[in-house]
Structure formats: structure tokens, C-alpha cells
């Protein structure tokens, strides 16, 4: 079962069996759902993706969003997706029932969005940012803000955005300069500019609600002086009419990919008439925004995994049909009289397809693992359990954002290579996936920034507690695999990999202990690569355990070939991907420091 852009069997295998949907619905929090209805919800999302998103995927690339007389023109279908998506419940799915939501497990919400993003990654962001902005208002906003904005945003009438970046403040948000001046009217006057704002302006909703980071006049420098404001494009006047709130659109960035998803340059208060309303307490804005950003980082990993999944399906379909060349016989010769074979018969093409498979399915499993921990944290009935899942999320989120984004680029690049010359041409879709996926390693904190977060903050946090909890989770899987004879060699290998990761971690932490922080963090990016490779190796062992058990039980949900393909992919990952960690460990423990700041000797 599957669409052109997604193998739904694998998605359901991951959600239901590897990441244990049944455990979630037996909890008090999700007891009002059952696995059957949640699977039907995913089927409905797939149907929506096939009819309302996928057919417009290439059109949106060919007709990019663009600035037109002070506003941004985007593809008409985007409005339709916002409306229908809201009707389908996509904007209220993860919201608690007491706040008017469906309180669907986050795992299901994640799978649903991944389906949409596999179909057409240019559109779901409009919904995702609206939901994220609404969640911030719900969580930290005053009653008045909730009253004014939530029902319209969650009903799909108004969209939302997240405005952090400024020309001088990208990775370094401590340099945000947009200003906020208190007004006796109970609001703040906002002035400044934000760049690269996704979904920042379009014709599809009456209003766009920007969640803006700004600095109240007199606030301390750095991150401790940043506050969060709701700044709508239009505001309610005293007579009840909607009037301009002095938010203007200076331009739309023209990009190599995701061209249907507008990326705007916004000006706030050009005419000194832009009003913003404080969310929560003054100077706490960044910590509130980070709560949205943690979700957004999981969403970025999910989007990258989803694109890589779609590209894999396209490469696979091509490789099964494209006739080219003949097999090499055992004599070392080719029979030129023989028919040409589909390229899927050539070992090097198979290598590229397996690489795509292990990265894409490994990435999706990692994303769903992270979503599962979000659910476990929300389900927790005591503080200790809640803290456990919170810490697991702290350490896994930067990896969940980065592995699918970085390795996804490699997967799609190999997928493009499978098509040879056609891969490079716009007759086929691979070049679009290749351009679309490139942004995922950049926005929501670049790979460099995520890697600093993992090594500099998450590894040592609470004396390494988050890290130790994650290792314990992996060791639990190792113990399970030890009971299944054909998987024992893989569980031993994962154990060795964990030991290697641990010895590299201890080696690097020594620099931190000696206060050599620059040296400690210099190769954070390579540490992320090592860490992510081991974590995805863990995910493959989990998938193989379930596949093996179901194969033994002769479970009829999936075919024997399906289970076998998962076990084969495990072997492939451990033969071709895991050994990369050896080289990474050698580099990371090499005492030479060749990248520290110094003379410009490039
Ligand atoms: C298509 C698109 C959509 C976006 N959507 C949004 C949005 O909706 N809202 C929003 O607020 N922003 C958005 N952004 C902005 C995005 O989050 C930033 O581009 C990103 O955080 C990087 O900031 P920057 O571009 O200023 O790069 P810089 O911060 O200048 O980074 C340049 C390079 O230097 C590295 N670097 C920077 N500082 C350090 C450091 N301390 N240590 C090590 N390396 C470092 C980075 O890793 C990167 O490789 C979007 C960007 C794009 C392109």
C-alpha cells in the first residue's frame, strides 16, 4: 500500500509497532483514542495529501511566491490546504481537549505532518507555524490574547509566524535589536525589521499573527533582555474594524528550493504605528520561544525525513523501470546480445538505493522516537518520570533536527544519481527534492549551532544525566536483541559503538574540565555526526527486532518480504554506515587543533 511519495506500510509499521502506539492509547491522557481510529485519521491525511498537496508540488516550484505591490503572491492552492487542513483537524490535533483540541498523541500528529510533507513540502509549514504560534499564546499569553487570537488561528482563519531573525541576528539571537516601547494604552510600540520570515505574508487569510522577539527599551543586553510579543498584521480598532497594524512587507527572498513557501522581509513600525502585546513576563521571551523552537526542531527533522522518503520512492520507481546495461557475468564479460536490464539490477545502483532506504527510514524512526518521548513526557504521572522524558528530549532534539537534514541531503543526492542525467533535469522531480531539502540543515538553528548545543550543553547537562538516560534506552534495546539469535551480532556491535561514543565523549569533556572550551567545541559538528550515526543504528536495531518477531509470529499485517527488507536494511546499515564512526572517532581524539581561531592562512 502506498502513494507515489510514501510507503504507508513503513509509516504504519513505525508508528504502530516500533513506536508502540498501543502503549500511548492505554494511558489516561490518550484513553479517548484507539489505534484503529488514529490509523484511520492517518489514512484520511494520506488521502488529503494525495488529492490536495501532491498534484501541486511541481507547480509551486515553477511558480514561486513573489513580492507584488507590497504583498506576497503565493500559489492559490495554499489557501485551500489551510482551509481543508483546518477542517481535517490538523490545527487542533495536538492541542489538549480542555483547550478545545483533539488531544491526539504527538506521535500521530508527527506522522500526519510527515505524510503531508512527503507529498508537498512547500505547504505544511503554513499550518505548522500557525499551530506553533497559537500554542505559544495558549501557553504563555494572557486571557485577552487567547480570547482574541486562538479560535481564529486554530480555525484556520488567521495564520501565524515566528519572527526571530534580523539582518545582524541569525544564529546569535542575543543581538536582536527590534525595539518595544510601553504605551499607556496597555500595548507596546514595536519598531524594527525581521528577515527570512516563513509564511510572513500572503493573500490567503485576513490576518497574520506574528510572534516577535523584541527588546523593551532599557532591557538588559543579550538574551536576558528579550521579550516576546504578539504583533498582528491587522489589529482591531476601537470601532471593531480591522485596520493595518503598520507591518509592511519589504520583499520575498527568492530561494533555490521550497519556492512555494514564502520567506519574507518584514518591517514593523515604519510609520510609528505598530502595536505589539507582551506574551508572558518581560525579558523571558527567548525561553518561551525556545519551547516553540524545540517543537519546530523536531518538525524540521521530520520535514527533511519526509522529503528524503519521497525522493527514495521516486528513485526506486525509476530504477525498477529504466533499462540500461547488462549484468557482468561470472566470466567478467557481458553478453551484448542479451536484453538490457533495469538499473536496479546493478550493484552500485542498489548501493545507492539502500543508502537512501537506511537514511530515510532511519531518520523517520528517529523523528517518531522523539515524538514518542514527547508523548511519554505528557503522559507522565509523576515528576521523576516527566523529568526522565524531558531530559531524553533535551539530548535527542538536536540530533532529531540534524541527522535527517544532513544525511537527507546525502540520501537525495544519491537518489538523483540513480537517475543519471535525468536526475539533473527538470523532466524528473529529483532535482526539486535536492533543492528543497537543502534548507533543513540551515533554518531552526544550523547544523553548527545544533552540534554546539549537543556537545556543549546537552552532553554535560545535569552531570551527563540526559546522555546516560539515552544510553540506557539503547542498552534496553540491546538486551531485547540479545534474546534473538540472528540479531546478537548487531546488538554486540551497537554495544561496541556506544563504548566508542562514550570514550570520545569523555575525551572531549576533558577539554571542558580544563576550561579549554574552544578546543572542546571545535569539532562539535563531527561529534554530532558520530552521535547521530550511533543513534540511528539503535533505531535500525529496534526496527529489526520488531520485524524479526513479527516474521516469527507470521504476523499478517505485512508481507514476509516486508519484514525481510527491514532486517536486510539493518545489515546494510551496520556494514556500510556504522563503520564511519571509526574515522570520526580517530579525528575527534586527534590532539592536533587545526581549526582554532588564528592567522588567516587559507
Ligand atoms: C528559507 C528560510 C526560512 C527561514 N524561516 C525563518 C523564520 O520563519 N523565522 C525566523 O526567525 N528565521 C527564519 N529563518 C532564518 C534562519 O533561522 C537563519 O538563517 C539561521 O538561523 C542562520 O542564521 P544566519 O542566516 O544569519 O546565518 P549566520 O548566523 O550568519 O551563520 C552563518 C554560518 O556561520 C555559522 N555560525 C554562526 N555562528 C556560529 C557560532 N557561534 N559558532 C559556530 N558557527 C557559527 C553557522 O552555523 C553558519 O554556517 C529562515 C531562513 C531561511 C533561509
Write the layout of secondary structure elements.
Blueprint: H1 8-18, H2 21-25, H3 35-53, H4 57-62, E1 66-68, E2 71-73, H5 77-88, H6 106-119, H7 124-140, H8 143-154, E3 158-163, E4 179-182, E5 188-198, E6 207-216, E7 227-232, E8 234-236, E9 242-244, E10 247-252, E11 263-268, E12 275-279, H9 285-321, H10 347-379, H11 383-418, H12 421-424, H13 430-437, H14 447-458, H15 461-482, H16 488-513, H17 517-521, H18 524-553, H19 560-577, H20 580-589
Parallel strand pairs: 3-6, 4-6
Antiparallel strand pairs: 1-2, 4-5, 5-11, 5-12, 6-7, 7-12, 8-9, 10-11
Helix pairs in contact: 1-10, 3-5, 3-6, 6-9, 6-10, 7-8, 7-9, 9-10, 9-11, 9-13, 10-11, 10-18, 10-19, 11-13, 11-14, 11-15, 11-18, 14-18, 15-16, 15-18, 16-18, 16-20, 18-19, 18-20
This protein binds flavin-adenine dinucleotide.
Describe this entry's structure for a reader:
This protein is α+β, with helices and mostly antiparallel strands and 602 residues long. Among the domains are: 8-143, Butyryl-Coa Dehydrogenase, subunit A, domain 1; 159-283, Butyryl-CoA Dehydrogenase, subunit A, domain 2; 446-596. The chain has 20 helices and twelve strands. Strands 4-5-12-7-6 form a five-stranded mixed barrel. Strand 1 and strand 2 (71-73) form a beta hairpin. The longest helix has 37 residues, at 285-321. The protein is globular, with a radius of gyration of 25 Å. It starts with 7 loop residues before the first helix and ends in a 13-residue tail after the last helix. 49% of the residues are buried. The mean pLDDT is 97. The structure holds flavin-adenine dinucleotide.
